[in-house]
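Hey, can you fold this one?
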Amino acid sequence: MKPEEALPAARAAAAQRDAQLPAGFAIEPTERVSIAQFVEWAAIEPDPSAMRSTRPLGAPITFLKRQLLHVLRQYLRELEAQQTRFNLNVVARLAELEERVDKLEQRAGERERR
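Sure. Predicted structure:
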């Protein structure tokens, strides 16, 4: 199979499959998330003030959690920095791939028109 035949073949195979989901399964449509939203989500910014406990005797538990956070601050910040760096690089690569796919789809559309 040639590469230019792969997309129509995949679409034909997908059309032949049963589109019905088993009982109890449903996929709700979602809005498409923009690259800008992914970039916003990629940056990790935890809010230490959100750390609290709603259990009985929650105040001492919250105090202990905050003290632990204080002791581990340097380690946790390094983890956050590494994870944020990874997330942003993945989003950048995703944006590049999305642009590449758009260009390839445009070229394919131009070829079909000829």
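Helices lie at 3-16, 35-42, 58-71, 73-113. Let me know if you want another pass with a different chain boundary.
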